[in-house]
Structure formats: structure tokens, C-alpha cells
Amino acid sequence: MAPKTSPGPSSVLRGHRTDVQALCYHPKKDLLYSGDADGEAKLWDLTTERALWSQRLHATHAGITALHFVTCNHSTLLSQGRDGAIKQWDVSAEGTLSRVPLQVIETGSYNFCRMAVYVPEGPATNLLHQQASPSSPEDMSDNSHAEAIKPQHKIDALAAMSDMANCNQLRTELASSICSEEDTTVETANAALVAIAGHDPAVLELWNLQTGAPMKQLHQPEGVKHGMCMAVQLFNQPARHTLYALVGYEDGEVAVWDVFQGNLLISKHLHDEPVMAVAIDATGEDADAVQQAVSSHEQLIILVCTQS
Prior knowledge:
Elements: E1 20-25, E2 31-36, E3 40-45, E4 50-56, E5 66-69, E6 76-81, E7 85-90, E8 103-106, E9 116-118, E10 141-142, E11 151-161, E12 171-175, H1 182-189, E13 193-197, E14 204-208, E15 214-218, E16 229-237, E17 242-249, E18 253-258, E19 263-269, E20 277-281, E21 290-296, E22 299-307
Parallel strand pairs: 10-15
Antiparallel strand pairs: 1-2, 2-3, 3-4, 5-6, 6-7, 7-8, 9-13, 11-12, 11-22, 13-14, 14-15, 16-17, 17-18, 18-19, 20-21, 21-22
């Protein structure tokens, strides 16, 4: 039997003058946004395979590291650059972006970790444009003394496509609980959030997209040094008013945090190299399952988080 050959691209879109670092599909149209290392964004018509529009969103020295549509209204696009800023852009009916950002959130984050966005489900159609009283940066919650809590969920390693001996099977109990301060939990759960590596790249920060204010910091446990946050994704359990952060670190550690309580639920060393990407897929046949893909150094591990 002849060996299988690697598939080639179905099309090639040319036009950027530097490396493409970020991609984002339009949720309703056959359009693709791309961002490069010089801070320039382009809009592509995937039917004609031609560029329709271009604009510099971030400084040349910073580039664009991430692009993300806000799914609640499909009219706001977020861009992240290595200039310490996340910008919100108004999206026209044709897909082009406003010349001036709607809001600029100065995060002070200058690393390569791409942002993760959480937008709660609900009737609101213009969530980011609703005004709320901004909180002071000094009010940012801290989890320095978070403790472990009783396990109620489990992560099963359905497949471990890795040559690492300690990743042949992973069955670890996860923790989950109801926040003792219910009003704070509901308020946070109703906010649109963005997660990024902070000014200290070992700390994960949560910011309110409506107010542009910091909300919480997730510190690694005392005495533990996993290095920088390299990748992050957010996923939730609406019935429990719970939001989780899946974080990959520089030393190959992968952790799951309860965002609202600031608790570290599980931490496992899955790679010998930095974790470059994590992904969440909650569209499986089991509505309670969350499939997570973690990649590093040409290794792939598939995990499924299920309710016990």
C-alpha cells in the first residue's frame, strides 16, 4: 500500500507582506479576516478569493496576535496586539471594520498568548455596548489562597496520541462548587469576559469587555513555577453558573480553573515542550461533554470533560 501524501491547500490567498499571525471567519458570511506581524488586517471574500479591504489595527512593532468575533451580536470584532491592547471594532454589513475602535482596553500584556473570549448566552443582542459602572483596577480579585474543593466532575483521556509515557491514560477528578457569594457569581456570569496572560505572563487575567476593567487574576500555586501562560480557552456550564479556563503553560503543564471562584481544579503535566494551543469543542453528541484538544511540539492529546 502506497503511503498517504499530505493534503495540499485548496486555495492560497496572497497579499500580506509579513507573517500571518491571526485568522477569524465571519460568523454569517463567506468572509475571512487575517492579521499579520505588521499590525495590518485584511478581509477576504472566500468565493472570489480576493481581498476586499485592509486596515492597520495595531502598531507595526506589535502586530496582530489574535482576532475574535463577539458571537452575541456578530457586529463586534476584537483584535489583540503585542502593544498591550485589546481593541473592539464595529463591523459593517459588508464586513469592513470601523476606522476608529469602539473601545481600547489597555491590558499591559505584551506576550504571545492569544486571548480567549466568553460571552454569556441570553436575550441581549448588543452586550458590549451596554454600559456598566467600571470597577477599579485595585478591585481585581486574587486567588492567592485558593484551596482544593470536593470533586464532582471528571476528565477522561479518550485518546492520547503522544509518545509520552505519563500520558497513556489520564483519569483525574475535577472539582466544582457553587460560589459562596452568589450575587458576585451571577454578576460575573452575566459579563462578557476576555482571558489573557497578564503583564506577568505567568498569571492569567480576566477582563470585563463591557467596562474595560480587570476582574480577576489566577495565580499559579505558591512555590509552583510552570512558566508563562502560552494558551487559554474558556468554557462554561450554564446550569451551574460556572465558567472554566483551560490553560497551557510553558513547561507543558495543562490546568483547569474555576474562573468565578478562582480555584485551581486540576493540573497535569502533559507535554515536555510548551503548550502551543488548546481548543474546546462542546458540539459533541453528549450535551454534557466538552472535548478539549491540547497540542505541543507535534503531539496531540484529546480529553473529554463529562459531568459525573
